[in-house]
Amino acid sequence: MKSASRYPNIAYIREQISIVSVARALGLHVDGYRARCWRPENHRNGDRTPSVGLNRKTNHGRCFVCDPHSWSNIDLVMLCRGCDMLGAVFWIAERFSVPDLPKGIHLRKREEWSARFMASRDDSLVGLLVRSGLWAQLTPSEAKILQVFVTFRDVDTACCEVSYRGILRYSGVGSHATVVNAVRHFEQIGFLKVIRGAESRVNRRVNRYMLNMDDPDFQSLMSAIYQRQREEIETERALREKQRAERRSRAPV
User: Do residues 42 and 66 lie in contact, with contact meaning Cβ atoms separated by under 8 Å?
Assistant: First the structure.
């Protein structure tokens, strides 16, 4: 049951409550860091081979068939239960040990809450991704690989020409498979076009990578992530305002 005097700490939920534990609490079939999708109609054989990946380091998950981007533990509850964000927050707080919002902590400065991802002094590509909220959705390895593409892209053509070995060297990522998966993900969301070159050995293949911020599907994805980020901020703001109002109502006249 929701408590009128409880205002769960959303940041704590997002960072400290394991997405694997939340998936189990939702009744999903979880095996290690994989889970069966709750939308079996989208999968061949009803997703008998689990398609949902749960990332312990980022505390995010993603169905590699249904979802173009990853989601948080709060998003997972919203998706599975069809509820809004506030309902998802209280659902988690009722099942896990979640502290309340700290007392006496005011909202961040207004300018920090009202950022617009298409309006800033920082017009860099990475800056746009950060303000949209998409950067936070990337895995650490994806962020490192993307930074290589941004750093080495030609200003005029927006293309980066680099081998897999170069990506491994400059990103610090140690796995060839990790690079392949990251590139595939960027292609799936419409952000990256790959012009594949001839190869004699896989690690020596030199491809051209074109980053495309104008792809309609990618623009829609960025807008959706940004909107969800704003809804989360507004929910946190509403919880804090209720907390302050309750303290004022108990204060002696």
Answer: yes
Looking at CATH, the fold of the domain delimited by 113-216 is given as Arc Repressor Mutant, subunit A (1.10.10)
pLDDT tens for residues 16-27?
Answer: 999 999 999 999
Which CATH number is 1-100 given? 3.90.580.10
107 pLDDT band, cuts 50/70/90, is very low
pLDDT digits (tens, 9 = 90+) for 221-232: 777 778 777 887
- Domain extent listing, the chain: 1-100, 113-216
Contact status, residue 218 vs residue 190, Cβ threshold 8 Å: yes
CA neighbor of 162 nearest in space, from 175, 174, 177, 147: 147
Close Cβ partners of 189 (under 8 Å, ≥ 6 residues apart):
68, 69, 217, 218, 221
Q: Which of 12, 13, 9, 15 is nearest to 102 (CA)?
A: 9
In terms of pTM, does the model score above 0.85? no
Distance (Å, whole) CA 58 – CA 139: 7
